[in-house]
Amino acid sequence: MVARRLPDIAALDVVVTVARLGSMGAAARDLGISQQAVSARVRGVERELGIEIFIRSAGGVDISTNGMPVLEWANALVERAAQFMAGVDTLVGARHATLVVAASKTVAEYLVPIWISTLAHRSDVKISVRPMNSTEVIDTVHASDADLGFIENPGPVTDLDSAVVARDELVVVAAPGHRWADGRPVSLEELAATPLIQREHGSGTRVTYEAALRDSGVTPAEPLIELRSVTAIRASVLNSPGAAVLSRLSIDDDIAAGRLVEIAVAGLRMVRPLRAVWTPSITLRGPARDLLDIAIATGRATSGPTA
Questions:
Q1: CA distances for 112 relative to 74, 98, 132, 267, 297, angstroms
Q2: Fewest C-beta in 10 Å: which of 19, 166, 201, 233?
Q3: What residues pair up with 173 in beta bridges, in sequence order?
């Protein structure tokens, strides 16, 4: 027995409409397409099934004996397809009622508020921002628990689509009384041998710093203290003899005001991409696409081309 291919649901919808209205012309007017297109789709379904569904006449069409059960089954398929699309529309609507954004701590604190403020003028979507480190962002997006993520990690992002939205520089900073704050450049070896106040494992800042030192042939010392937020590290540096590596986004004002000193490190410059990530199984649309476009446009305006 020859295996038959299921006709296109849209073509079956045309066939059902012809049967309901009794003529090709009436179906064409109801569907907003030409009578020739209706006739062609009906013939295509009949040819695929190997069954004559309609008996044509000058006054319209009559349903053939074999056509009766075919139309009954076709009508059931069309109705189920409509239910399927209605269900999908409901899920998509629910998904986009609240835009869930997972963002690394630096991005969440210093960039996302600006992007969201711009988006708020274009859309009334509710936005939930979940600050976490970059590794956690990747895991959250992988699990489809966020519509869009923003990370600081310089390495590859497995099985996720991504786009660079901005570039950020990491700098070594200390309080004015620190032994490195005298203006002399610090060597890579001295920096690597010195325990710093650092973020936890998995943070983009720490990954970038440790990778930069290893690429330069030195191994970083274990942290003096590990803290889970940029704000906590900044406060610790301001009130202790320790130094830290922080995003320029977070400490430019402190450097300008003299509260912190940027430490020059010979042969070291740490520039990293800030990237948006999302699952390739979905097409970014609506508020998620708008937020990505805003992030890219803002990044280009403040840090040059991102390509």
A1: 50, 16, 13, 32, 13
A2: 201
A3: 244, 262
Q: Per-residue pLDDT tens for 263-296?
A: 999 999 999 999 999 998 777 888 899 999 999 9
Based on the structure, what is the number of domains in the chain?
3
Reported as a single tens digit per residue, the pLDDT across 175-184 is 999 999 999 9
Tell me phi and psi for residue 225, to 5 degrees: -145, 145
What residues contact 285, with CB distance under 8 A and at least 6 apart?
Answer: 96
Are residues 278 and 256 both part of a single domain? no
CATH number at residue 24: 1.10.10.10
Q: Quick one: 65 exposed, middle or buried, by C-beta within 10 A (0-12, 13-18, 19+)?
A: exposed
pLDDT, tens only, 139-155: 999 999 999 999 998 77
- Tell me if 1 is assigned to some domain: no
